[in-house]
TrEMBL record:
Protein name: Peptide methionine sulfoxide reductase MsrA
InterPro entries cross-referenced by the UniProt entry: Met_Sox_Rdtase_MsrA_dom (IPR002569), Met_Sox_Rdtase_MsrA_sf (IPR036509)
This protein's UniProt keywords: Oxidoreductase
Classification via HAMAP family: MsrA
Domain Peptide methionine sulphoxide reductase MsrA: 28-161
Underlying gene: msrA
EC number: 1.8.4.11
Length: 222
């Protein structure tokens, strides 16, 4: 596999992040499923997901950026705890949350599973075949090997959370560039977008050592 892996930072200012599973113990999945803001939030709130980030992949041109995407696609990258959630679980969310039956006009938004290894390819192909036989329609979503993931600009990371600036700024001030790899940021980004249930939310809040002003601001949004 030629894939050059993104190396997550280890932000630790907040207990939830300090105690999060380290990158050496996680597995990684990469999906293209339309504008990457939505899946960043959806997967960020999913139990068993440890960190998320958005970026560009699936093309050949070097150093893509949002306004110079070349042949790349917007993707979400998900680090997960394989003892808590399976690749097949993530794929179920993936298939259910984009339209696999029609190829979008822009390559920027195409549906694609960028597999990290042969095991992932096998599960991806099996679930695609299941979907085709269940619906009797042919699936346009591609399954390809991930070559290289390029991290998107800061302002695209945890996009939903950025509309609660008190919290996003608090986390970014503490973490700087490592903000993107904060589990706290991933969860809150998901919760403010309406994902996750009350129990998950309260479990996070019980462990959240954010300043009171930031806590009450985020609660106001939930
Ligand atoms: N231009 C669209 C999608 C943004 S996404 C990062 C919007 O503003 O909603 O491609």
């Amino acid at each position: 596999m030629t894939q050059r892996a993104y190396e997550p930072a280890r932000p630790t200012d907040f207990a939830v992040d300090a105690e999060a599973l380290p990158p050496s113990a996680t597995e990684t999945a990469t999906f293209g499923m339309g504008c990457f803001w939505g899946p960043d939030a959806r997967f960020g709130a999913m139990p068993g997901v440890v960190r998320t980030r958005v970026g560009y992949a699936g093309g050949t041109e070097p150093d893509p950026s949002y306004y110079s995407l070349g042949d790349h696609t917007e993707v979400v990258q998900i680090e997960y705890d394989p003892d808590a959630v399976s690749y097949a679980d993530l794929l179920a969310v993936f298939w259910a949350n984009h339209n696999p039956m029609s190829a979008p006009r822009k390559r920027q938004y195409r549906g694609v599973v960028l597999v990290h290894d042969d095991q992932q390819r096998e599960v991806a192909e099996r679930t695609r075949a299941d979907l085709e036989s269940r619906t009797g329609q042919s699936v346009e979503t591609a399954i390809e090997a991930l070559d290289r993931f390029y991290l998107a600009e800061d302002y695209h990371q945890k996009y939903e959370l950025r509309s609660t600036p008190v919290v996003a700024d608090e986390l970014e001030d503490s973490y700087g560039d490592a903000f993107v790899d904060s589990t706290v940021a991933a969860r809150l980004n998901g919760f403010v977008a309406g994902h996750g249930d009350r129990d998950q939310l309260e479990a996070l809040f019980a462990r959240l050592d954010l300043p009171p002003a930031a806590l009450s601001e985020v609660r106001r949004r939930l």
